[in-house]
User: Which sequence fits this backbone?
């Protein structure tokens, strides 16, 4: 060991402490005392370097021993050894300072590093400075390790733990340091030592007094404050603020000690720290603000010196400093106490009044209101409301005498502070405010003045309600029911015609109804009647507010709403329409939102089915058909709300409503046979059936299939020839799409009859669309949930498709693709093969060509049908993988079929058709390759493809932000921008052609093209755009197109587009 010591200390052979020495001491092979004796000559050597390295070695050994167990104990660290080591390292601090000073003088030619330097530069300077202070750093690290001996956390686990005498020794040694002279790492170690001492040895440190008469801990406080004064590093400050808060909370503070703590804390207020851009420590300004605020609000002893500076900072004009000051007032006032608050209350009010009534920003105004609340709470929780509070409220009420002025609305915040402060101030302010405002309302001559007064009254009611909801210690009854004394006046005001015709009045009436025990049953009924009568008002805003109010009243007066509002709304629904319905839509909208509770929903179901039966006997005109659809939609919306709210009775309705609905649809009523009605009923079944338990669903379906001899019985949609029965496939398809796959079905045997059935296309376009859509969904559900592909039969079906007439061919292609999608989604290989067959044949057979390409829209639509909630089996990312393959195949085919223009057009249609289904991330990666194809697609004779191409182009031209330079873009974005610029002239010409009404340019295409034109004008360079500016502006101003388009939505898009291009002229001039 002697040789190792000599090699390390004297010869400096090793850069680090030899592990053999540490290991020998740790295992007990060499006693710690023996190591100290062996190093005696080095520890007392006159050579600074020897002493420094020897102290460093001993420090390293001590740290290793302390870290050897969770309680930081070791057999070598006995009580006497620990005391000796503590005294040794404490005494060595003075020697270490001298050694460091001498070394620093030899290194004093270093360049001064400013505080604004980068993190790397500052870190380099810290390392340089630490070399000079290494001995001091080692002593401090040893003391930090020793202070934790015998402790797990802050709890001692042994009698030989680091004790109070050692803590006082270390403290005295630390107080002799001039901390601000040293680099941050060393200062951080000192902060950690202080934190450890205060956390574990507070009682011992309290014995440190400046004199016999001085309070406990006075010497420690004085030493601590001198030591840490001037600290600026945020890492150290977070530790020191936490330590200071403990001292302020647990130690008595005499005036001298309080002033000392004030000096080292309030010098940082308010925090103005801003982290450097490359700051790796992640300390935010808010972290420091919260830590400092906790210190300032820790002891009332700081009030004498703290309040004046807090008052001074209240005069700040705004911003973060003002918010910090107001939040600090809120934290400090309850701690500093009523006496301190009262002494400065007038000054505080003068500042807060300005922030509330003349706010510079909303955030400061809100914080000022909260501060006023705290001030009132501190002053009047245990004292009568008089003096300053009377002045505050009097000034607020004076502003409210002119309720239409902005100051009246702002003065409500003062009333809000009174209400939120405590029960005393709340009762006082409520009584005076109600008395004055009710008198103003009754004396108001102009309706505008009455409405403005009601708005102030409603604000007070809102404040009361939110206060009782947010503060668990406050209740309306506990505040002595402040509204009861004004019961009659409030009810009269809020049920007046003026109040019921404005938003503030209706909201106030709802607040009265929500107030506990304010209105008896008969008055509740009367108030609800007044509220519900406004559902029929001509003003849409009034109707909306009244309906929202009834929803809230339903939560507190359900029986009143059930017995009053529900009959009122149901009477607005006639059994037959004799003329244009006036209030039917409003009544149905209200019923859908109010009738979600079980009792009310039961009544709604009974009434709606009664009305459906009645109107079914009437004519099947547009009015009665629309009425039936509205009734079904109302029931569906109510069910959706029940499902969202998690009602447990949904399963019961899932079992009862579908059979009733199917029975009504199969009656000989003309209205029930209308296509929109059948579709609406099918949508409701799609919503309800997933909530039907599998066992009940199996029983119900088995009975239904047997009764109808499904799939080709005479009463079955697949076996019937008449349009009405064929349309009924829609509800049955909805049931099978939505039902769980746990049930059993002979699904494979149903696919062939369905495909055959689809070859008969109904002459009525609406019926044909309904039948095709329903059969397609059903085929997809059968394939995905139950059926296995009959490859031979399907191949034979595919061979017949090109020979069918065009209408049947389109339907057959869609059916084929829906089957393919159903099987591909669950991972069946044949499903993918079906898509491959479509791609290969449509490029070779002109009879399929564009029809098959357009049929690929199956992949881009109706994702809401194929969901796991409906029992579908969906592989993760199946659709994205399939679409990626399809697009890549189509792009390759487009480039290889150079001499086959028909095939290339088919590829363009197919690509444009599936693009809307591609995720944005996948599409963005292909934009550069797709750009020429998209420009070409804008001129083909297919409206869906043109629209899709325009939308993809819009995504392309928004790929790069207009405010970024080329150097800031990645290579792919630069290439895309270059391609767009190269084709800008052709692109603009074709977009203008697509913004003109025509057979291939429906409104959706025109709007999409105009959006691309608008974006081009903001994204492309000015020199590229200017040659086209005149043509664009001229085309958009032509008759019957652009700003003169027959469709309003197109005109709006054209106006915006032309405005963007007009601005180019101003940019050119500039």
Assistant:
């Amino acid at each position: 060991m002697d040789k190792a010591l000599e090699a390390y200390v004297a010869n400096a052979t090793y850069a680090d402490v030899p592990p053999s020495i540490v290991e020998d001491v740790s295992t007990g092979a060499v006693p710690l005392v023996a190591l100290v004796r062996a190093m005696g000559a080095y520890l007392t050597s006159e050579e600074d370097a020897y002493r420094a390295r020897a102290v460093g070695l001993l420090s390293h050994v001590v740290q290793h021993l302390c870290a050897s167990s969770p309680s930081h104990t070791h057999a070598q660290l006995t009580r006497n050894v620990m005391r000796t080591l503590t005294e040794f390292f404490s005494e060595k601090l003075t020697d270490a300072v001298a050694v460091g000073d001498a070394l620093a003088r030899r290194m004093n030619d270093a360049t001064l590093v400013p505080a604004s330097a980068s993190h790397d530069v500052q870190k380099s300077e810290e390392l340089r400075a630490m070399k000079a202070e290494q001995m001091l750093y080692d002593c401090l690290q040893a003391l930090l390790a020793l202070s934790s001996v015998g402790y797990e956390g802050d709890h001692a686990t042994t009698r030989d733990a680091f004790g109070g005498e050692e803590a006082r020794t270390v403290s005295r040694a630390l107080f002799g340091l001039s901390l601000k002279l040293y680099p941050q790492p060393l200062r951080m170690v000192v902060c950690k030592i202080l934190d450890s001492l205060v956390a574990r040895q507070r009682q011992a440190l309290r014995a440190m007094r400046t004199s016999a008469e001085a309070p406990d801990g006075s010497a420690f406080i004085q030493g601590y404050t001198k030591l840490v004064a001037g600290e600026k590093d945020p890492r150290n400050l977070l530790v020191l603020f936490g330590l200071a808060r403990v001292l302020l909370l647990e130690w008595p503070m005499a005036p001298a000690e309080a002033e000392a703590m004030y000096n080292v804390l309030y010098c940082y207020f308010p925090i103005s720290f801003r982290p450097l851009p490359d700051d790796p420590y992640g300390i935010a300004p808010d972290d420091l603000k919260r830590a400092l605020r906790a210190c300032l609000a820790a002891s009332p002893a700081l009030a004498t010196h703290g309040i004046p500076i807090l008052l001074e900072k209240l005069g700040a004009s705004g911003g973060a400093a003002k918010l910090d000051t107001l939040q600090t007032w809120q934290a400090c006032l309850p701690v500093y106490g009523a006496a301190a608050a009262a002494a400065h209350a007038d000054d505080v009010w003068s500042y807060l009044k300005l922030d509330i009534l003349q706010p510079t920003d909303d955030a400061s105004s809100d914080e000022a209101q909260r501060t006023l609340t705290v001030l009132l709470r501190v002053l009047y929780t245990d004292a009568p409301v008089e003096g300053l509070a009377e002045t505050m409220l009097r000034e607020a009420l004076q502003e409210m005498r002119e309720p239409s002025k902005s100051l009246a609305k702002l003065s409500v915040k003062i009333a809000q502070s009174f209400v939120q402060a405590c029960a005393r101030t709340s009762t006082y302010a409520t009584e005076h405010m109600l008395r004055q405002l009710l008198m103003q309302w009754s004396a108001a001559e102009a309706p505008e003045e009455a409405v403005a007064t009601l708005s102030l009254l409603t604000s007070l009611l809102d404040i009361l309600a939110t206060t009782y909801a947010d503060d668990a210690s406050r209740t309306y009854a506990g505040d002595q029911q402040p509204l009861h004394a004004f019961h009659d006046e409030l009810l009269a005001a809020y049920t007046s015609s003026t109040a019921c015709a404005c938003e503030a009045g209706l909201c106030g009436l709802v607040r009265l109804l929500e107030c506990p025990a304010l209105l008896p049953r008969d008055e509740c009924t009367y108030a609800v009647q007044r509220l519900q009568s406004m559902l029929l008002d001509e003003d849409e805003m009034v109707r909306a507010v009244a309906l929202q109010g009834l929803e809230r009243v339903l939560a507190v007066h359900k029986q009143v709403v059930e017995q009053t509002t529900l009959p009122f709304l149901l009477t607005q629904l006639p059994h037959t329409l004799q003329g244009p319905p006036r209030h039917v839509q409003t009544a149905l909208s209200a019923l859908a939102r109010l009738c979600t509770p079980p009792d009310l929903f039961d009544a709604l179901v009974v009434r709606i089915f009664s009305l459906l039966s009645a109107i079914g006997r009437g004519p099947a005109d547009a009015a009665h058909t629309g009425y039936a659809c509205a009734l079904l939609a109302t029931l569906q919306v109510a069910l959706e709300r029940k499902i969202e709210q998690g009602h447990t009775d949904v399963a019961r309705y899932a079992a009862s409503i579908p059979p009733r609905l199917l029975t009504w649809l199969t009656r000989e009523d003309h209205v029930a046979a209308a296509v929109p009605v059948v579709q609406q009923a099918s949508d409701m079944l799609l919503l309800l059936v997933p909530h039907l338990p599998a066992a009940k669903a199996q029983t119900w379906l088995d009975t239904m299939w047997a009764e109808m001899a499904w799939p080709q019985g005479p009463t079955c949609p697949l076996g019937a020839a008449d349009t009405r029965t064929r349309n009924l496939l829609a509800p049955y398809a909805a049931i099978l799409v939505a039902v769980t796959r746990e049930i059993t079905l002979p699904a494979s045997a149903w696919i062939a009859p369905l495909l055959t059935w689809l070859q008969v296309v109904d002459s009525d376009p609406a019926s044909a669309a309904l039948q095709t859509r329903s059969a397609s969904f059903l085929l997809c559900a059968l394939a995905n949930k139950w059926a296995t592909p009959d490859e031979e039969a399907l191949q034979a079906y595919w061979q017949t498709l090109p020979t069918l007439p065009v209408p049947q061919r389109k339907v057959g292609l869609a059916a084929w693709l829906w089957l393919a999608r159903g099987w591909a989604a669950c991972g069946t290989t044949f499903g993918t093969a079906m898509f491959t067959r479509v791609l290969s044949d449509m490029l070779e057979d002109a009879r399929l060509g564009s029809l098959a390409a357009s049929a690929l829209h199956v992949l881009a639509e109706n994702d809401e049908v194929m969901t796991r909630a409906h029992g579908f089996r969906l592989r993760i990312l199946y659709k994205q993988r399939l679409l990626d393959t399809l697009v890549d195949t189509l792009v390759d085919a487009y480039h290889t079929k150079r001499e086959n223009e028909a095939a290339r057009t088919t590829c363009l249609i197919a690509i444009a058709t599936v693009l809307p289904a591609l995720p944005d991330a996948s599409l963005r990666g292909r934009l550069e390759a797709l750009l020429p194809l998209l420009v070409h697609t804008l001129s083909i004779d297919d409206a869906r493809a043109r629209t899709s191409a325009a939308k993809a182009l819009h995504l392309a031209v928004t790929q790069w932000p207009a405010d970024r330079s080329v150097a800031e873009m990645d290579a792919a974005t630069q290439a895309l921008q270059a391609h767009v610029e190269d084709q800008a002239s052709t692109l603009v010409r074709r977009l203008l052609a697509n913004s003109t009404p025509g057979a291939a340019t429906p409104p959706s295409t025109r709007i999409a093209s105009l959006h691309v034109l608008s974006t081009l004008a903001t994204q492309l360079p000015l020199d590229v755009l200017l040659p086209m500016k005149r043509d664009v502006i001229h085309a958009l101003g032509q008759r019957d197109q652009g700003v003169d388009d027959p469709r309003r939505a197109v005109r709006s898009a054209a106006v915006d587009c032309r405005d963007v291009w007009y601005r180019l002229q101003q940019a050119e001039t500039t």
Summary: Residues 422-565 form a domain with the Leucine-rich Repeat Variant fold (CATH 1.25.10). Strands lie at 151-152, 155-156. The chain has a mean pLDDT of 88.
